[in-house]
Write a structure and sequence with these properties.
The structure is a homodimer.
Chain A: E1 10-13, E2 18-21, E3 29-34, H1 45-64, E4 67-72, H2 90-98, H3 102-119, H4 135-147, E5 151-154, E6 157-160, H5 162-165, H6 179-186, E7 201-206, E8 222-224, H7 226-238, E9 242-248, H8 252-267, E10 272-278, E11 281-283, E12 286-287, H9 298-303, H10 315-323, E13 331-333, H11 335-358, H12 372-384, H13 389-408, H14 415-432, H15 443-461, H16 465-477, E14 480-484, E15 489-493
Parallel strand pairs in A: 3-4, 3-9, 9-10, 11-13
Antiparallel strand pairs in A: 1-2, 5-6, 6-7, 7-8, 11-12, 14-15
């Protein structure tokens, strides 16, 4: 087994509201479940934010040497329009609109989801189970809940009995919703006469006539509820007691609250160690929403085809922008914020690249004049402290100051420290933050520009100013600026 | 609805051994099921061949305006080692070797599969169902077969009863296997004592102790057989009577034979109109096989890291090479064959590009001197004749001869004919064959080369031979050859 870098990781546990020390249940292993998308629409930027932040967590654990089993589901049935027990199935409804079979909708938007996450350099999870792939498991769970008196059947639907559950447990413990308020607020909901109490929630719904997606069950033809799938799939692949359950903050209630009640009801024990919730993403200060037209899809950011941003932005820049914010902070996306992220991204990358030119063979006996190990420890501590990526990024910028001073010869590093410094920067930038270098031009272009620089230098030495100016001006037209330093000419390319 | 280009398509029907006219069951629609991979290993080039040829068929129907529902499954359980009823589950076995959960194996190799097909420019199918996602449907099918006396349970496993089936139907009709020979050859197989007849095949297998993947069923804990999933999923998404069932020739027996018996047994009718089987792919004349080391993975062809080929080849070249062969022919891959495919690919693409420069405004009143419509009709006829892609490609090369003669002014085309000619070539090359232009260099490089050509031409007019020779030689080092024609200098790039 790969050696694990032991760290003292603290995670803000959403259920206790406190930062707690993370001790994995099985030594060297991390089990993490994150609620994936309902695949009925093009992926939302807010979802991407969630998956980018969990990718950071996944990557940090992997970087430390943990064997991480990361399960992220695809919801392809049972998610009703109002996120609760009434309304049409989101996928079924879209299938009617697009005149496709529901599973064609699932395929179309699963592909969009995967392609978008790939552009953001988000690693695929270890397992990506689907709700329709686990109907039997869900039926088995419902049978147990009925047997334990925690669920009841009415007219071919099955509901979770919160009153019975509350004899031993406390529904609302995660989201801090008070049960009495729930009753009050749900009293006015119609069509809930089937339920013994309006606060109960569905586990299995009887399929109405003409409902396309349905399966046989002990209670007749029907389909599983949205909440049940995640309980079933998390336990199936991570065991009944696992380390981390995550998702967007909007899922905390009712989705995660129901999930928690279901699993706890079945296993009579605490089943999840840490709940992690990522915060919301706003656009120009307002909630993204189709109805108000305040909405921006990832593809529109990449292409620049939108009315909010003055130019296109590379997925890497958007990823960097998101990680400049902590996962528990609200992120507000705007033109200025992305322009700033782009500038700082290139600044970080260009300065990091300078390390390639700094080290000289004659520094073998140099005594280091700053403490690389302490800086590295600070980087780790940022990540150990509830995955504080903005703090990590600011420490990487601190490192770019060191690079400037190394360049000027004000600071010095011995060979071992230099390599540690360079490797640590590399690992945190590429492996942990998951950034990638954006190549503005390819290698052939680079070689051609260098050839042009050579021709221009010859022209200058022959005082052929017409040719040398001509080359400079023509390159400028192509967005390539030449910079003449002491003995060397370098070039810069416009973003 | 999009207008359909009516064609008289003939398909070689594998079950009758004859080319038959294709009439879709539902006007304007095509339902096609193709057996997908068992995701326990990196995708095999032979599989890619199958999926490239079915992509051609999918694309041609779409191009003609049909609404195609193309279902291609993922086998994630039940495919046993010897493709029959004994041996370990392929995925379960790999999970033990790689020390992963079976569903982690499924995820890993599904991603590899999708990425490879994406590189080959293979369109995703409309629906991509998984075997584990359809356990309930498979159990329901088995119940019906038992009820009809076509299956029986022994010790928690269920077998298909071929003798009972043969009272009304004929097992072996697809693959022309004689039932008596089957009995003879299977008589020596061990561990088949459970079966009433050795020729019977499993529908459901009892899960041995410690078998990881299993589900509850009326016959106890177990898992479905490989053959059953395709029967279930094809009918679920295409209806019990659908147009086309396809797969590699190696699946014809026993997989497709068993599928056919299962569906026919349930529905008492012919359920599939056309069976299409793609032929095998060999490497240097021999079957690809891990044990003899005569094996080449797609990624090794693209990277060039292999002992069979002298250079890397772009996925597009491999696709073109495969489509230069008919789907029913054995394809032999070799270094020479790929070199040849690469040469002809660039020849086709470069000549097609010349059409951009040929047309002049003054041809408005020109009378065409060759019949574009007949040539287009020939292209269609090639595809109508059992998807004859090699014939189509030879007609595209016939078109390149026309282009040469158009360039020289020997042939002429009126504006309408010219546009028809250009559009038809475009559609058959890009939409039907699914080829893509391979850009050897990017736009910036092109502009830089043109700048260098300009500088060189100035140098030549000033008789500065040193500079002009220098530019030519330096570019040659980069693989870029300059060609001086009458008034213009062009460049060529080494592959």
């Amino acid at each position: 087994m790969k050696k694990i870098i032991k760290r003292n990781i603290k995670i803000y546990n959403s259920i206790t509201g406190k930062k707690e020390i993370f001790n994995p249940i099985i030594k060297g292993h991390v089990g993490m479940y994150v609620c994936g998308p309902t695949v009925y629409n093009k992926i939302h930027l807010g979802n991407c934010r969630t998956f980018i932040h969990f990718d950071l967590i996944f990557r940090y654990f992997k970087y430390l040497g943990y064997k991480v089993r990361y399960v992220r589901n695809i919801t392809d049935v049972g998610h009703l329009e109002n996120d609760n027990d009434e309304g049409e199935d989101k996928i079924g409804k879209k299938a009617k609109i697009e005149k496709l079979e529901p599973m064609e909708i699932v395929q179309k938007y699963t592909i969009d989801f995967h392609q978008t996450l790939y552009l953001f350099n988000i690693l695929p999870p270890s397992i990506e189970p689907t709700a329709t792939g686990h109907i039997i498991d869900q039926i088995e769970y419902i049978k147990i809940l009925i047997k334990k008196g925690l669920a009841y059947e009415v007219n071919g639907s099955v509901y979770f009995n919160i009153e019975a559950y509350n004899k031993n447990y406390e529904y609302g413990i995660l989201s801090k919703h008070k049960i009495d308020n729930l009753i009050e607020s749900s009293r006015f909901l119609k069509k809930q006469q089937e339920k013994r109490n309006p606060k109960d929630f569905a586990l299995w719904k009887k399929a109405p006539i003409n409902h396309i997606m349905h399966w046989p069950s002990p209670w007749g033809n029907g389909f599983p509820s949205w909440h049940l799938e995640c309980s079933t799939m998390s336990v199936k692949y991570l065991g009944k007691f696992f380390d981390i359950h995550g998702g967007g903050l909007d899922l905390k209630f009712p989705h995660h609250e129901c999930e928690l009640a279901q699993i706890q009801g079945i296993y009579n024990q605490k089943t999840i160690n840490f709940w992690i919730h990522t915060n919301m993403l706003t656009l120009n200060g307002y909630k993204m929403s189709k109805s108000t037209m305040n909405i921006l899809l990832p593809k529109d950011i990449f292409s620049g085809k939108n009315t909010f941003l003055e130019k296109p932005f590379h997925p890497n820049i958007v990823r960097f922008f998101i990680l400049k914010n902590h996962y528990r902070s609200i992120i507000n996306i705007s033109n200025d914020a992305l322009i700033d992220a782009e500038r700082t991204y290139y600044s970080l990358m260009n300065k990091f690249k300078k390390l390639d030119n700094i080290y000289y063979a004659d520094t073998d006996n140099v005594v280091s004049t700053f403490d690389v190990f302490s800086w590295k420890e600070e980087c780790h501590k940022a990540m150990d402290d509830d995955f504080n990526s903005p703090m990590l990024i600011s420490l990487l910028f601190k490192a770019t100051k060191y690079i400037e001073l190394l360049e000027k010869g004000v600071l010095k590093l011995g060979i071992d420290d230099f390599l540690l410094f360079k490797n640590t920067m590399h690992n945190f930038i590429f492996k942990v933050l998951g950034l990638e270098p954006i190549e503005k031009i390819d290698n052939v272009s680079k070689k051609l520009i260098n050839l042009l620089i050579k021709i221009r230098n010859n022209a200058r030495s022959e005082k052929n100013w017409i040719l040398s100016d001509n080359i400079r001006n023509e390159l400028k037209e192509l967005g390539i600026t030449l910079e003449d330093n002491k003995n060397i000419t370098t070039f810069k390319i416009k973003t």
